[in-house]
Amino acid sequence: MTITLIIDGQKIEAEEGATILEVAREHGIEIPTLCYHEALQPYGACRLCVVELAGPRGPKLVSSCSYPAEDGAVIETNSPLVLETRKMIVELLLADCPDVKVVQELAHEFGIERPRFELEDNDCILCGLCVRACKEIVGVSAISLVNRGVDKKVKPPFEIASRDCIGCSTCVFVCPTGAIKLEDIGEPKLVHHWASDFEVVQCRICGDHYLNPEPITDYEKLFAEET
Ligand code: SF4
Ligand code: FES
């Protein structure tokens, strides 16, 4: 079914079922995002994509990446309230992750030089992209968001090497901040991934190197140490 809505004063026709963000982008209306990826389910974590949606009791802010585009909706993507809200989100992010390039670039865009809040030194913005990619694309859920509030972080279950991790590095590639490191830990060529170690082996036919998806972690020893 075709619906009609208004975004930034522009009358737009769209197919029912799309989100506000999808409809806006299809029509060249840019909305900033951090935790959105078109290959993954929306998560609504960063709130950077907020837009103003008119309603009978006045306008409200909604996350455009997860909110459905509805027939008759009137949306503003750059109203003063939207810009003020996004600026506050970026300022908080900058205080939390002052050395993260993607956050610095956003801060620059919003004219923020120095956040008013106490500086931390985190490099994870808790966007959850790595966790969703591991679950939805790789299908293993080797990592998840653990704890709450200020202690929230991405970790393998029980913060020890996960038997489910295949060292595919999807989480490394999808992470917008570089918070996930794939470390070369020397010869014989080993790669450290979360709490698991993987061996890089050479193909006898083509000579290329690839990661052996079987972690070399000695789980029996590890679990014996943990208990
Ligand atoms: S590690 Fe990277 S992808 Fe995962 S939640 Fe943190 S910033 Fe997002
Ligand atoms: S991009 Fe929509 S909440 Fe993060």
Overview of the molecule:
This protein is an alpha+beta fold. It folds into two domains: 2-109, Ubiquitin-like (UB roll); 129-226, Alpha-Beta Plaits. Helix content is 25%, strand content 20%. It is built from six helices and eleven strands. It has helices at residues 20-26, 80-96, 101-109, 129-138, 170-174, 219-226, and strands at 2-7, 10-15, 50-53, 60-63, 74-76, 144-146, 153-155, 182-184, 190-193, 196-202, 209-211. It has a five-stranded mixed β-sheet with strand order 2-1-5-3-4, sandwiched between helices. The protein has a four-stranded antiparallel β-sheet with strand order 8-9-10-11, with no helix packed on it. A hairpin with a 6-residue loop joins strand 3 and strand 4. It is elongated, with a radius of gyration of 21 Å. It starts with a strand and ends with a helix. FE2/S2 (inorganic) cluster is lined by residues 33-36, 44-49, 63, 65.
Structure summarized in a few sentences:
The chain is about 25% helix and about 20% strand.
Offer a few descriptive terms:
4-stranded antiparallel sheet, Alpha-Beta Plaits, binds iron/sulfur cluster, 25% helix, binds FE2/S2 (inorganic) cluster, 6 helices, 2 domains, alpha+beta, Ubiquitin-like (UB roll), 5-stranded mixed sheet, 227 residues
Write the topology of this structure.
Layout: E1 2-7, E2 10-15, H1 20-26, E3 50-53, E4 60-63, E5 74-76, H2 80-96, H3 101-109, H4 129-138, E6 144-146, E7 153-155, H5 170-174, E8 182-184, E9 190-193, E10 196-202, E11 209-211, H6 219-226
Parallel strand pairs: 1-5
Antiparallel strand pairs: 1-2, 3-4, 3-5, 6-7, 8-9, 9-10, 10-11
Bound molecules: iron/sulfur cluster (SF4) and FE2/S2 (inorganic) cluster.
FE2/S2 (inorganic) cluster (FES) binds next to loops.
